[in-house]
Amino acid sequence: MTKRRLGLSTVAIHGQPHKRPDWTPVMPPVFQSSTFTNPVGSDETVMYSRYGNNPNQTAIAAKYALLEGAEASIFVGSGMGATALAHLAVLRPGDHLVSSSWIYGGTKRLFDEELARFGIEVTYVPPDQPRLWKRSCRKATRALFVETPTNPLMRVLELTPMARVAEEFGLALLVDATFASPINFRPLEHGADIVITSATKYLNGHSDVIAGAVAASASIVDEVTRLMTLWGQAIDPHAAWLIDRGMRTLAVRMARHNENGMSVAQWADGHPGIAKVHYPGLASHPDHAFASQVLDGFGGMVGLELKGGSRTTERFLKKLKIITHAPSLAGVESLISEPRLTSHSKMSAEERAKIGIPDGFVRLSCGIEDAADLIADLEQALG
User: Fold this and answer.
1) Could you read off the pLDDT of 241-252 as tens digits, one per residue?
2) Environment class of residue 308 by beta-carbon count within 10 Å: exposed (0-12), middle (13-18) or buried (19+)?
3) Residue 127: what pLDDT?
4) What is the per-residue DSSP string for 302-322?
5) Which residues make Cβ contacts (< 8 Å) with residue 6, sequence separation at least 6?
6) Could you say which DSSP state residue 30 is in?
7) Annotated catalytic residue, options 176, 193, 236, 244
8) 357-369 burial, b for 16+ CB within 10 Å, e for fewer?
9) What is the band of 117 on the pLDDT scale with cuts at 50, 70, 90?
10) Is 201 one of the annotated active-site residues of the chain?
């Protein structure tokens, strides 16, 4: 008989359920210790928090692996740390990486400035032209990288063409799905080999932790763990405990993020002060039909193009009362930012406009407040 698979909400709370002895705490304690006693003469792996095997660290790793449907996972010091270590786990000096050109600015800087120092060359491909993935591969190509949904245009990409190329050439397909969370989208189910996420965002969900995670096969996670140990990227036990706390409400939070994102996007779609809305839940979004097939929710991230450019946008941002002007995203509170000053600040206004991010573009992360209050706040700020 096939073992019944638990629902994602149950997994996010319990991980792999097990019988607990009497008088044990319902919530796990914080093992705020750098080191642990070990048997004299033992050749077993030392238990040491820098190695990522503190009980708080291993508990969330096991839980996240279950959520993604992976053999294993590991948490590290940040989302950028997860991106860096995941790529270093599958690339060596002289290798070649093919990357989507629709990626977070920090990731592109990592590729251009740091991977280049290791002699790793990167070719960028517009992901809406799937034939270019195969054409861009070389003898030295070892991996493909894609981000979906994308930041900040919320494009939802089809992984099948990349997965086919990866399988044909024996490459690793790495996917950053931070904007979806494993509740809305699980890349391994669509041909990915490695999933990268910024745990700072939806996994934790309370804007009080910086962390990242990698989920993949046990062998790849072992290599990421080796690199984490040497590069000093382990997360603190208390940070791990906070992520565990956050993950317990992940499914119900995502339901509200999805609901609020849709409500705000539908309201904004008809507002005279807004030129364009970027949200995959709207029929006007270029990926709506595909997103409806592969996503279990459209998320809380909404891109808005305000009429009037940057000066109008600054006045609008100053008038907001509930929505907070701050970088980052995916917390219980709504946040808003301008990509021209954050993720895409290294680009000129012309370069940003060319890729669909004109002045006046704001990225709204809808929290879990009442949707009517968020809409009222946006309405009065635009008024």
Assistant:
1) 999 999 999 999
2) middle
3) 93
4) EEEEETTHHHHHHHHHHH-SS
5) 14, 17, 66
6) P
7) 176
8) bbbbbbbbbbbbb
9) very high
10) yes
* Confidence tier at 314 by pLDDT (50, 70, 90): very high
Q: How far apart are CA 31 and CA 89, in angstroms?
A: 28
To the query of whether residue 50 is one of the catalytic residues in this protein, the response is yes
Comparing C-alpha atoms, which of 199, 179, 181 is closest to residue 75?
199
Active-site residue 176, yes or no?
A: yes
Given the residues 50, 164, 245, 248, the one annotated as active site: 50
Output the CA torsion sign for 363, 296, 253, 193. Answer: negative
What pLDDT, on a 0 to 100 scale, did the predictor assign at position 307? 94
The pTM (predicted TM-score) of the whole model is 0.95
Cβ neighbours of residue 128 closer than 8 Å, sequence gap 6 or more = 155, 157
Q: pLDDT at position 339, please? A: 86
In the predicted model, what is the mean pLDDT of the chain? Answer: 94
The b-or-e profile of 288-306 (16+ CB within 10 A means b, else e) is beebeebbebbbbbbbbbb
Known catalytic membership, residue 134: no
Give residue for tokens 């304690």: 29
* Neighbour count for residue 98 (Cβ, 10 Å): 27
Which residue of the set 64, 104, 124, 279 is catalytic? Answer: 104
Task: Decide: 327 and 346 in contact? Cβ < 8 Å.
Answer: no
Which is catalytic among the residues 142, 186, 201, 340? 201
Half-sphere exposure of 277 (CA within 13 A, CB side): 23
Over residues 364-383, the mean pLDDT reads 97
Omega prior to 280 cis, within 30 of 0: no
Contact between residue 172 and residue 90 where contact means Cβ atoms under 8 Å apart: yes
In what helix (H) or strand (E) does residue 174 lie, and over which residues does it extend?
strand 172-176
What integer pLDDT is reported at residue 358 of this predicted model?
Answer: 84
In this structure, what token pair is assigned to residue 240?
A: 């791990």
Rounded CA separation 234/77 (Å) = 6
